[in-house]
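Observation: inputs received (chain + glutathione).
Thought: call the complex predictor directly.
Action: predict_structure
Action Input:
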Amino acid sequence: MTEHILYTFRRCPYAIRARMALAYAGINMELRELMLKDKPTDMLKHSPKGTVPVVITNKGKVIDESLDVMLWALAHNDSDDWLQELNTSTELIKINDHQFKPLLDKYKYADRHPELTEEQHRDNTLDFIAKLDALLQQNQFLVSDTTGLADIAIFPFIRQYAFVNKSWFDQLPYQHLQRWLNHFLASELFAQIMPKFNLYNDGFRYHFPDNQLIE
Ligand SMILES: N[C@@H](CCC(=O)N[C@@H](CS)C(=O)NCC(=O)O)C(=O)O
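Observation:
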């Protein structure tokens, strides 16, 4: 049987959330690593919008939005109930993707947005950061005391945010968010989906989630 195919880029937060859900669900796939400036033509043929992640199922269905990839994975297997409190989670993810992410990009690439200083761009992110910390003060994770969809969908963006200036992030008065970030950074699931893969355009393909090179 043909395998499902995953086009991915290691550091992309959307691709990270998708790989975490796919690995958690234990879905076997063929992983194809790419660089954004050199996208495989066969990926673009299936998904001309040219963003990662892209999944092509063994039935030929194209899934090219990261949240849809996560939901597809969890529909196969969700043994720890990541789909709990789905409406609350989806609302939080929407804020992350549509409000926080643009502010994160402006902070991360402040030199491209000289209308404000880096500190001013950073200040604009703090409402969401404080909101997450407040949620994590109430529960161990964002919507309950166990990991859910929102945690995995948002974690890669907070990781990116924290590492813009890690020493600044670490001294923020947001210890719940720091604890939560550290939990996922140290998790086996994150380690499992972050090895460095050679590029599909250089002829390399891998089994996922066991990360074995396909000979
Ligand atoms: N809404 C999309 C966004 C995905 C996205 O923007 N991914 C970035 C990489 S992190 C991308 O592929 N950008 C295309 C490019 O830079 O050429 C999703 O959730 O999958």
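Thought: report the result.
Final Answer: The CA atoms of residues 22 and 73 lie 5 Å apart. The beta strands are 4-8, 29-33, 54-56, 62-63, 206-208.
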